[in-house]
Structure formats: structure tokens, C-alpha cells
Amino acid sequence: MTPLDLPRPYLLFLGDADDTTFLKTGLGLRDWAPGQCVAEYKCPGAGATLGLPAMTPREAHAAGARAMLLSAASIGGAIPASWTACLIEALEAGLDIVSGAHHRLANNPQVKARAEALGRQLIDVRTPPADLPVATGRKRSGKRLLTVGTDCALGKKYTALALADAFRARGLAADFRATGQTGIMIAGAGIPIDSVIADFVAGAAELLSPDAAPDHWDVIEGQGSIFHPSYAGVSLGLLHGSQPDVIVLCHAYGRRRIVGLPDYPLPAIGEAVDLTLRLARLTNPDARCGGVSLNTAGLSAEAAAKVIAECADRWGMPVADPMRQGAALDALVDSCID
């Protein structure tokens, strides 16, 4: 069994979005996999744009696209019936369709029938492989880094992508291992950990980061937080299955409480590192912390640099915002690979 492999490059479908608020997936692909984004396409009258060339599905196929990827998220994760004509147009142009929505593409009988008639694929990224193993805890060769967080939605995916890029820039063999739908679409492969049955989460993580050359790095996208009442279970399974040699703790500057659960305060950085390492050492006794990825979005470059330096001094470890290049990021990378 191999993790999901996606047909690329993509035509990004923006649906009927009027702004980029609901285009998180499209933004991630544009920012992290621009070479896989041939063009954008949207419903008539939609106002949103990612700044990519506008093409019809047939034009995009002629330009090299092999799949149309649903880049817009609707409320509730549905695939609106109003998109049906656009989806069928893509199938008839020779494109497969890739979706990260909760609802399944094949639930639309018109789309399903047309795909079957044309021999096209309808790929739901949030469908995990059917034959996932139970974890064994066996020590694997190679090196692994896992991004973990004090909360959800604070930069674990972007941190993993940035660190994988930084490792490769230094001549190291490194692969980004995707565990969420947008990461999978960026990488073209991966396993959607949040859709895996609980007993198989750690096994899925083992499968995602198999034995490798001694100097090869798998940089694994974290999910949730062991401190989040709703998602700690998936985070713990991913931590044990990944067997990380290095963790990088992700934190949003200024955030004090779990988003959506204000009765739960975020842990102190030292507490978060200590507990995460104690749990990680069940499957890798040598696990260590490389430092902190601090999300400083909203701060000026000068203010961010000041905050990063102060936090590094206070926490006694490298701190950097991976979206800001410079000495702080270099120090974090040094700490991870040493």
C-alpha cells in the first residue's frame, strides 16, 4: 500500500467565492506549489482571484493540467450543486477532479455518471487508504522532524514546508510529509490523518514516514495539539507513529487561549515542550526539541524581530518565524539538524 498520489499539475477551481476568505487551499497551493498551478477557473460572476491566469478547463488541459482541484471551501464542507456544470466541463475537458471537502464528489449523481462514462477519476483527499496497519513501534531508519503546536491553526503546515525547503537548500535530502488535505494537495501525496480511524492513526504515521537512508529527513506536518480537548487524540497518535528525532513547537504570538474553547488556556512554552517530549519518548527515547516556530503574522518586520529575540532569550532555545528569512531562521534550522 502506498499513500495517495495525486494527478498534477492543477487547474484551481475557485467556485463562486467573492473573495479569498474561503480559498485557504488555493492560497496554500499558490504559495507553496506554484509550479503545480497552471491556472484558475471559477463560476460565472464570482469575484475572487488568486492572481493566476484565467483558463477554461479545456485551455488548462492543453496547457498541461491533469486535474481540476477544488480550492474553495463552502460552509459545512459541502460541494454546492451550483458547481455541477463546472465540474462536468472539467471532466469533459480531460481533467480528473480532486477535492478536500467533507462531502464526496461521487455523491453528486450527475458528476459521478459523467466521470464513469469518461473514465475520469473523482479523488476525495479526505479518504484515507483502506488497508492502514496498526502501529508496531518498530524503530525506523532515517531522520524525522514533526511540527507540534500549543493549539490548532497556528502554522504547523507552513512551518513543516518552510523547514523542508530550508533543509534542501542546505543540500540535505528532505521530504515534506503531508497529513492534512491542503498539505496533501501541495505535496501531491500523503494521508489525511484527521479521517483515519483512531486505532490506525499511529500506523498511518509509520506508513507515511518509512525506513529511509540514515541522512534523509522526513519533515512531517503536525495536526491539532496534545493540549486541545477536541483533537489531542489524533495529535498523540501522530506523535507516537512519527517517532520524531526532533520536534518544533509552533505557537501564535499573543494567543492565550485555545481558539473556540476560551475556558482552556494555552500551556506555557516550557510545559508544552516538556510534556510533548515525554510523550514522544515512548517510541523514540532520543527525541529532542529543535526550537519554537513563532507565528508573528500581523507584526511589522521590526516588531517581529524584537519579539523573536525576546522569546528566544526567555525560553532558552532558538525561535523563528519561518515565513521571515534571516538569522533567527538559520539558527532554528541549525538546531534541528545538529
From TrEMBL:
<feature type="domain" description="D-glutamate N-acetyltransferase-like N-terminal">
    <location>
        <begin position="49"/>
        <end position="128"/>
    </location>
</feature>
<feature type="domain" description="D-glutamate N-acetyltransferase-like C-terminal">
    <location>
        <begin position="134"/>
        <end position="328"/>
    </location>
</feature>
<dbReference type="InterPro" id="IPR035086">
    <property type="entry name" value="DgcN-like_C"/>
</dbReference>
<dbReference type="InterPro" id="IPR011669">
    <property type="entry name" value="DgcN-like"/>
</dbReference>
<dbReference type="InterPro" id="IPR035402">
    <property type="entry name" value="DgcN-like_N"/>
</dbReference>
<protein>
    <submittedName>
        <fullName>DUF1611 domain-containing protein</fullName>
    </submittedName>
</protein>
<dbReference type="InterPro" id="IPR027417">
    <property type="entry name" value="P-loop_NTPase"/>
</dbReference>
<dbReference type="Pfam" id="PF07755">
    <property type="entry name" value="DUF1611"/>
</dbReference>
<dbReference type="Pfam" id="PF17396">
    <property type="entry name" value="DUF1611_N"/>
</dbReference>
